[in-house]
## 1
Amino acid sequence: MTVSSVILSILWLVIIPFACGIGITIRGGKTAWSWFFGQLLLWSAFLPISLYAVLKQKDMNFVRNAYLPAAGVILAISIALLIIWAVKNKGKVTGKATEISKPKRTGFEIAVIIAVFALLAVQIVLLIFLAYMEVDDSYYVSEATSSVTADRFYFKIPYTGLTTEIDTRHGLAPFPIWLGFIYFDTGLQTVPLAHIILPVIHTVFTSGVYALLG
């Protein structure tokens, strides 16, 4: 793990998703959700690209060359929306005039919010320090690695190393390819990515889904 790989991983997993979502969320005053919606948009763009790459037997270079422009378009639209919002609202709200009356939270509501974030923090700590191997690792982590080293997707059986036709059971699953892409573009190895970094990302994202459902 090098400094450059860490910087690139922070860029791909935190900064770029936040920037891709801020143009949408700032219009509603919900910038705390910028990362969530930005990540959702990026995954939505990655899905059809990865599926096409699997079905057409493309390699990771194709995925990267197709995904970077797609991510760039999302980022450009978000920044454009942010600029438009800033221009329209320039000088409109200053000082006390910006204050919007909101009902004050009760002590119980504050306690629940604190408990939720405390439990989320506990989950993240456990994910980092109690990472463990499981059955799926022998397939998905191996597939993520081979997607980079072998330049083909779902054409090798990780259990045996033998080549095969497209694995119809797993072949439409984009996340091993997403894991491989992050490894390919940042240099971070798939094992720490799969066991520590991405579980944290996915847990925070899933908590956002639950919050929206609630």
Note: Helices lie at 3-25, 34-55, 60-88, 107-129, 137-149, 175-186, 190-213.
## 2
Amino acid sequence: MIYINTIEDYFKWKETHNPVFLESKKGQVEVACLNTVLIKRELIKPNSWNPNFVPKHKMEELEDSILISGFCFPSVVYFDEDFQMFVISDGAHRYKMGGDDWLKFEYAPCVIREYDENQRMIATVQFNKARGVHEVDKDADIIVALINQGMDEAEIADRFKIDLETVMRYKSLTGIKDMFKNQVYSNSWSVIQREE
């Protein structure tokens, strides 16, 4: 097992990391869970955009599950150069479960991914939706953030598997008129000159 106690430990691990892949009919798929590491909890922080909420009784169920079945699902993190910390893309509640209020772990089981700025948010939404626990009301905030980072509406629709009209509706929900200032609109009607 790999223990990451410092940022230097992470960089050493990164140099020797050998990902494992499975072949699929759509190409290679990395089996990231085979590269789970234990990261010192002080080196990890939750992201600021997760639209998922877990009530206290569900956290208690999560605690029971971990105590009975073990810690089966690592958190997914990426290393943020600006913060010099690992930021959680998926598994914030599993990470929280290891905190002082719950099980008080010294380390968090994690899979480290390399995400660009857009993919960080997209990964969080995809993980949540795949489990069916995503709060749709907060999609608009994420979509606006991705557009502000320069992502195209069509690409957002493709990545989230929603139609372009839904992306535009989410934009309008934010109340930010600037989101529409560069939008190209078609005319509602056209003028035809008729001779009499």
Note: Residues 117-131 form the longest helix (15 residues).
## 3
Amino acid sequence: MSGSTRPFSSTVRPVRPARPVRTAAVAVLGVLTALVTATACGGSSSSHTAAAATPPPAPVASIDATPARLSVAQLPDSAVEGWKLLAPARTQAVAGGIQLNECASVAGATSWQQQAYISVYRTPAEQDVFTFHDAPAAKAAYQDLLARMGACQSQSRALQAKSHLADDATVAATATTAQGTAWSRKWTGVEGISAAGPQTNHLYAVQQGASLAIVHFDEWAGTQAAPYDTRADQDVLTAVAGQLG
């Protein structure tokens, strides 16, 4: 439920730079632009062990010639948020897992298409489309996501308590379809994977065939004129499923 995702592995697990609530537009754009342009989307916080006579690494990310899975008009609350593409969609191979937020991750995919957006409020959104070897593998990843999000409220509160914040996180499923689920997390965010401060994070997951699509966007306190109405989440899930068809 953060505005960007990060790859992780058993040895290196990069952490995104923190984005303060209501941060300057330049800072937000810098973080998200780095996300969609950095090799393997590792970011500047990744650490790598150098080896002697290591050949130059081959590029693993490329600009996708196809348009984004969702248009800006199809993103949640588009009339209010005024979403814009941050950069062309990019597709890369996946060697490990991708962390979605403090609670959930996606593992086992063979490729990952990523599209970043930014709102008129300088808040982030993203769509990630993961492709697996087959439909059972994609379904297993979706079922794992369901289980992890089911425990997200308690995990988020534990993280808050550890950071000496009020454990006020609430996580709820806001819509379901035969293929997908939407969640909303309202909390005082802990700096790290999420921005710090009061916010609401929205996450949508749709599995169809060998694909698993994830859409997420953030509302930071004090930026939007009115909170997003999650009664529209059913339509968002339907739109994502339609694009995967």
Note: The first helix runs from residue 25 to 37.
## 4
Amino acid sequence: MTSSLGPSSSHEESSLVEICLSYRYSQEHPWVVQGITGFLSAYYMEQPDFHVRRHYDELETGRHIWVCDVPDAMNIRHLLKRLQCDLPPSAVSQGTLLAKQPIRYLIDMPED
């Protein structure tokens, strides 16, 4: 499944960020895939410099991944906290930073 919300009209510098949903979280709460897609679409209306380039399923892991252009001046943690308010309890972790790879944030089941 692929979707795109269109390019940014601004010339502000941006970075690629991946927002991922773990397989076990999406199996436990199947509606959150549509919920996150809707949230990110609405966020684009609020912040036109932010947009989703692509949404796809990673076959090897079963994760849903949204690849986003995020303005460098924007606090992605703030977006993730707002998103978590609309989701069942979850934990967000940041993936390892590899050269030339987007920063990846994984939404998963909370640690007990």
Note: The first helix runs from residue 23 to 28.
